[in-house]
Amino acid sequence: MSDVYFASRRCGPGSSLIDKTKKLIKKINFAAELREKDTVAIKLHFGEPELTTHLRPAFVRPFVEEIKKAKAHPFLTDASTIYAGPRSEGVSHACVAERNGFTLYSTGAPVVIADGIDGNNYVEVQVNTPHYDRVKVAGEAHRAKAMVVLSHFKGHEIFGFGGAVKNIAMGLASKQGKLSLHSTVTPYIKQKLCTACGRCVSWCAPGAIEIRGKTAVITGSKCTGCGHCIMVCPEKAAKIKWDIDFSQAQEKLAEYAFGIVKPKKGKIWYFNFLIDITPECDCYTFSDASLVHDIGILASRDPVSIDSASYELVKKAAPNPRSKASAAKPGQDKFTEGYPDTNPGPMFKMAEKIGLGRRRYKLIEIE
Ligand code: SF4
Ligand code: SF4
């Protein structure tokens, strides 16, 4: 059983959410374990343009200040996406972060995109878990000496919810890793969107794509799952296959998280923000109404315990009557209201099996 510290959403004079964030930082006391000049990755999701419910930059600054007090070097990070969009390559990803307020001025730390400008900066980590021998981790995240994981807790259409485990696993997997987590690795071309422009062909290093008549066609046996065709297609015709068994995707998620955590034993800490608990993840350009009211902030050294506690707190909360979970009852899973196949049980089970963390937790509320 791991300790999970909890600060409720209620605030008053002298007890703002920023004050409470600072108290949680003191409880976890990660600065005591940092050495001078340690590079410390602060992993978060910068949000898409026009998303309004990603983690606010104001929450990040106390972490940066704490790391700097230890004379260590913080940087804000995430890895690029496999879907086409402004976060699919390093330069425009950094611009989105800036546009959404994650500036040196507001947070005190620079943004470094963890897998480089073209998504090819990754390191293979040996895990020997049921689905993988090795996982491919964004290079700068792997090289950082320590990591603070800040997660906006919300729903997800495959994984049930997005918390600490998903933030590090999907967030810091390389493009090939993300494809492997999301799909059956080889993308497909939606023919009615394809204009046969050939752009994907020139980006496909193993020559898996050719133009046949009026459309591009992928030969699965040649595809290495790099995700570049998805990134470069101007028509969004290159798509991820979503037909993978959800349970397997969840198990793989835990295994990828294990590949991030394993080399950082004792030097990775987790903070979940149960604020704006939207039904979908932060990879969309819209924010639907929260499923439940804002709950607060949690902190732990165990990614599984913190997600387990966060999930239970959302389950217990009354549903927002003007949200996707309007028909749910307190105690019922709010996330399955929109996505009924997303029971997160397989992720938790695999996470415990491979030693990522423990589902049982002790919730300790702080004032
Ligand atoms: S880049 Fe997109 S539109 Fe162009 S050929 Fe490839 S799949 Fe078709
Ligand atoms: S994922 Fe990579 S290797 Fe596979 S078809 Fe697309 S560009 Fe080619």
Per-chain topology:
Layout: E1 2-8, H1 17-28, E2 39-43, H2 61-69, E3 73-77, H3 90-99, H4 104-107, E4 122-126, E5 134-138, H5 139-143, E6 146-152, E7 154-156, E8 160-162, H6 164-172, H7 175-182, E9 188-189, H8 199-203, E10 209-212, E11 215-218, H9 228-232, E12 238-239, H10 246-261, E13 268-274, E14 296-300, H11 303-316, H12 345-353, E15 361-366
Bound molecules: iron/sulfur cluster (2 copies).
Notes on the structure:
The chain has 367 residues and is an alpha/beta fold. It has two domains: 2-182 and 244-359, Rossmann fold, CATH 3.40.50; 188-239, Alpha-Beta Plaits. Helix content is 29%, strand content 19%. The protein is built from twelve helices and 15 strands. The strands form five sheets. It has a seven-stranded mixed β-sheet with strand order 3-2-6-13-14-1-15, with helices on both faces. A two-stranded antiparallel ribbon has the order 4-5. A hairpin with a 2-residue loop joins strand 10 and strand 11. The longest helix is centred in the C-terminal third of the chain and has 16 residues, at 246-261. One iron/sulfur cluster is lined by residues 186-187, 203-204, 206, 208-209, 218, 223-229.
